[in-house]
Amino acid sequence: MERNHESELNRGFGIWSSLALVVGTIIGSGLFFKQGSVLATAGNTTVALWAWIAGGILTLTSGMSVAEVGSQMPKTGGIYYYIEKLYGRTAGYLAGWMQVIFYGPAMMGAISAYFGVLFVSLFGLPASTSIWYGIAALLCVTVINSIPNHFSAGFQVITTTIKLLPIAALIIFGLFFGHHDALGQSVTVMAKGVSAGGGFGVAVLSTLFAYDGWVTLANISGEIKNPQKTLPRAIVFGILIVIVAYVGVSYGAYRSLDANQIVDLGENTTLTMATNAFGYWGGRLLSVAILISILGTLNGKVVSFPRVLFAMAENGDFPFANTFSKLSKRSKTPNAAIWLMVAIGILMMFFTNPDELTNYAVFITFLFYMLVLFGTFIMRRRDPEGSNRTFSMPLYPWIPIIAILGSLYVEISEVLNDFKGVVISLFIVLLGYPVLKYLQWSRHKK
């Protein structure tokens, strides 16, 4: 039987902390390290800038569509809950299973592992110890999320504010002190590990991965103040801020450095840009800002994904549901769900390649995104007068159509470029089906 603890959850996320969660979760290390690869695949700076803009538009249209659906279903669980209400228990369960067992822990593990690598590099520590610093960072963030959620909300606001400062500095430096033409520079060198000259489509695909993460806010609707209004506002304005940041930093980089130099530098582009602008210590400060940026992104994942497990347990859709549907009496947070997913993420850091797993999850993630996008048409048909809609996207139906076409592009590209990863991700998700059947059988037996 479905239980409801929504009234017990602490609604500690207001508009600013919700906005910070969207911005902070999207902007991780991708903004600082994707410049070279996007430019290499685009072939010239003009095409690369349009790729960042196009990726942002596709993300914004997806965000508006999901925000409209979410404003009508303001419950914890995000796409797990939306898909269940739109398409039934089995589809919703598989969406939740994917996030709880696969995608969420893999993201936590990958982000933590990267934090450890950058941390030991910055402070000259042995590379073999990086995994332990990554685990330490993950555990610290987990502790913050195990106490009342106004602490994790405040932490998200602080880390997001800090990460926006170097972004603003890089944009201003590029705009006013750069000496290169930002538009029209062609790439003539080969990038390491990147297929140069892949064209506009491949470049857009690269930016879409950098824009991912905005949907995590929907997972914590039960902890948002006035979610019917706050959720759509935070998603839409958060994505707009990220678009400005991505396009602004890219334009600043093209003004500051030659196109071939950017491709050759690759992941070190923004570090070199900061060092040129602000000297040796400027580069070091940027590295610290990147570490803080990663912590903010990690916090967003730890805040968001365990709420999906909590919502599934509320419905009896997970083993040991009584344990994982409990809230801490003191903090009103689902601590058992949080620590289980963190434990899976740590295991992935030791026994798998989390980065590879997150790549595998892209296909399935966008598949479930598409189901929610199609859901906008279902919800409009169910409620043509909009009596339950607190947010209506502009330019309907073109907004969800653009979002669906963009998602289809991602799906087709994944099938063509990484068929093995698609098969593996489908297999992992379908493993959840026999688990669901067992849970249904055990409930019926009782």
UniProtKB/TrEMBL annotation:
Keyword Membrane tagged: yes
Entry superkingdom: Bacteria
Chief localization: membrane
Annotated localization: Membrane
Entry keyword annotation includes Transmembrane helix: yes
Entry-linked InterPro entries: AA/rel_permease1, AminoAcid_Transporter
Keywords: Membrane, Transmembrane, Transmembrane helix
Membrane-spanning residues: 12-33, 49-70, 91-124, 130-148, 160-179, 199-222, 234-254, 278-298, 336-354, 360-379, 391-410, 422-439
Record-linked Gene3D superfamilies: Amino acid/polyamine transporter I
Bilayer disposition of the protein: Multi-pass membrane protein
Protein name: Amino acid:H+ symporter family (PotE)
UniProt lineage: Bacteria, Bacillati, Bacillota, Bacilli, Lactobacillales
